[in-house]
Amino acid sequence: KQWYQRRVRGEELKKIADGEDEEEEMRKKKKIPSEKGGHFIRFLLDELNCNIDMYDQEQIKDPDDVNKFPAHYGGLYLFYMKPNPTSDVRYPIYVGVAKKSFRERFQRQANDNFTGILGKIWSGEFKFEGHGVYAVCTHHQGPAAQAIKKLLLDSFHFPLKRNRRGQLRRELDTSEQLPAEYVKDNYDIPWKECLEKVAAAGQ
């Protein structure tokens, strides 16, 4: 009887877990894959006066490459993939906030075997063949950085996120990129409100 109760309970927990995954998928479908939103994200960063071109042709290939990033300040940053250094095609894959130092955060991303995004890309665990990883570091910090990060995570589904079972939710989607105007016209992204929050945070 106890074995049967445990089995029933196990099946109930599996149904709950599967239901939560299904709900997560439904929520995810309302978001745009971040790779497809590359043009819109570029537009948003331009509106926020971010210098996207500073490191745009400098691929991050190994731990030594992270030493070129600022060590004495941090802020909002994005990792993205490009087929080659001079390409204008950018596939955003990750957004984060370095509270103190871009270099320190990127070093952890390179060397941490458990959560290191860069290390997992270089090792092939994240299979992005034919593309290199690049970064954009912004000057936005504190509440402004958090507001931008929240908008991006609420509006886009970034591939470098894992589900509750520790599985990578999907691989890199390079099928298409949507024009920025199309995203603005067809998706309810409160980007203007985000600009207002960022401006207010800087006052």
Distance between the termini: 66 Å
Low-pLDDT residue spans: none
Mean pLDDT: 84
Helix content: 40-55%
Strand proportion, as a percent range, falls in: 5-15%
Helix and strand string, N-terminal first? HEHEEHHEHEHH
Number of helices: 7
What kind of sheet is the major sheet?
A: 3 strands, antiparallel
Structural class: alpha+beta
The largest sheet has its strands arranged as 3-2-4
Give the C-alpha Rg: 19 Å
Number of strands: 5
Shape summary = globular
Description:
The protein is of the alpha+beta class and 203 residues long. Helix content is 43%, strand content 13%. A hairpin with an 8-residue loop joins β2 (75-82) and β3 (91-98).
In short:
The chain has 203 residues and is α+β, with helices and mostly antiparallel strands. The protein has helices spanning 2-29, 38-47, 102-111, 117-123, 142-155, 180-186, 191-201; strands at residues 32-33, 75-82, 91-98, 132-137, 156-157. The strands form two sheets. A three-stranded antiparallel beta sheet has the order 3-2-4. Strands 1-5 form a two-stranded parallel ribbon.
Keyphrases for this structure?
alpha+beta, two-stranded parallel sheet, 43% helix
Give the arrangement of secondary structure elements:
Elements (H helix, E strand, L loop, with lengths): L1 H28 L2 E2 L4 H10 L27 E8 L8 E8 L3 H10 L5 H7 L8 E6 L4 H14 E2 L22 H7 L4 H11 L2
Parallel strand pairs: 1-5
Antiparallel strand pairs: 2-3, 2-4
